[in-house]
Amino acid sequence: REWAGDSVGAIQTVRFLPTPRNGLEENYCRNPDQDKRGPWCYTVDPSVRHQSCGIKKCEDAVCMTCNGEEYRGTVDHTESGTECQRWDLQHPHKHPYHPNKYPDKGLDDNYCRNPDSSERPWCYTTDPRREREYCRIRLSEKRPRPRNVTTSCFRGKGEGYRGRVNVTVSGIPCQRWDAQTPHRHHFTPDKYLCK
Hints:
Layout: E1 3-5, E2 12-14, E3 40-42, E4 50-52, E5 63-64, E6 122-124, E7 132-134, E8 138-139
Parallel strand pairs: 5-8
Antiparallel strand pairs: 1-2, 3-4, 6-7
């Protein structure tokens, strides 16, 4: 990302000039020098010459993080090999998760998704005898950092709260999440890694 001069050094030209074949048009993020961090661009901030654009690698779409709520890959069969039902259809199974009703859930085509915060992505099946099943999607080693982390209050619905309060409003101590007594539940730390 340096200036390249001619042999005399009198004329300085930009090393990465746009051509019809190299894609360096407009101000889009590109990677003309095969930087290992991926696409980057020169910025309009005089104090920041260039910066990576933070575009996800395509292979990241084949993995899921946490319980797969952000998974947007193209797996369209369940663990048993059954084809998934399209999210915009109500046959063979009627369901509440229509793409128009939940536009932020990525309910595209018949791909496995996790619109209800289940333990991992799933889909309604095309088999009238099996309503829904989980999908087999590889878990990424990378753990995303929680968004909107707070410790003394909560934002939104409290998904990012990481404080240490462990009693209810009436003073009852909270049960450990990894315990099943006195109350059995499915929100265990090993199934909901990022919660």
